[in-house]
Amino acid sequence: MWQKPTILTIIICAFLYSINYILFSFKNVPLIFITRSYSDDTINIGFSLFEFEQAKLNEIELEQKYTLTAILWHQKKLSKVTKLVKYLFDSHLFKEIIIWNNNLHINLSLHQITSDAHVIKSIRIINSKENWTYTMKYYACLHANTTGCYFIDDSWDRPYYIKSLIAIFRSNPHDLHLITNSYISYASILLRNYTQQYVEFLQNDGNILYPFCMNNIHSVRIQKNYSLNCIRSPSFDDKFIFFTNMQQLSSYQTWNAVDNNLSTCWQTNPLIQSSDFFAIDFLRPQTNIKFLLTILHIHQFHENLELSISFDGNWWIPYRSLNGKSRLLKHTYLFDTVQFNQGFKSFRYMKFQIINNSSHQFLHICDIQIVNFD
Q1: Which of 221, 269, 278 is nearest to 245 (CA)?
Q2: 38: how many CB neighbours lie within 10 A of its CB?
Q3: Residue 24, pLDDT score
Q4: Mean of pLDDT over the chain
């Protein structure tokens, strides 16, 4: 007969073995972090580490799938072309640079652009035989060896908001994306397969650009996958994009919220619906973000906003905890995602959505400043 201590030892070993087997069986299953809201009893389920890694892999796949050629339109400002070429090359965002020379008085050569052998390998020059209109720069994209093209002309000293424009393009590649004011395009991105069709549209209707333009300096107009027409403004330092689906007053534009100037503010109309929101696109999935939000609307109304995060701009998870949110000054709030609950520290998008309708209050945002990126 076995003694009782021996039997007890066998039972304990079997129990420990079963626990070890269960842990081993589930070690490769993505973790789901469950945290209880600080402010109420609602359970908040955040993103898992697996989902964060998957989001980063998706970004890499998009970069590899939607490669870009920079198309530089030269008319008469050669000195600016040389500066732009260096800027584009040093950005490491483009597989190649094509210069479309539309100046019939100059037969442009590589050595007129740069003496750097490494840069020269990345450049191709097309000397036009006719004086085409600016729309023909899109035809240059047909010579590209990449999926899409980034267009800019020699009117600018440097590309404007290049990272923001590329991030939006790769999120929604089947649209034309512009950085524009009402009448002038600073830069644009388009899939190579669509360029010939787009040029035909331009030739048939010179106003084809207007549907893509907004009466808002430094704005981007696109339609995201979640079917909301939004007004977007890249930040002054090209680190993030501020966007909203709300109507705004003509003298208070979205750009005013991200222009690094506290004396200018973005303001909405006083009629606010529960589906209205403003949001921030940090251009790629990131972790441990800190930013300051400066407002002028009353503090109580700020509590009428629900904060959510997302990796793709389609699936949003609300964050209801107070952890990581603090009021520094009368009108300034700090959002420190290092202090956010587990499962909410990593994301690409952050959205502030109206909870209850309001007919007599409005949002008044004066500045958004990134403190640091991880």
Answers
A1: 278
A2: 12
A3: 29
A4: 78
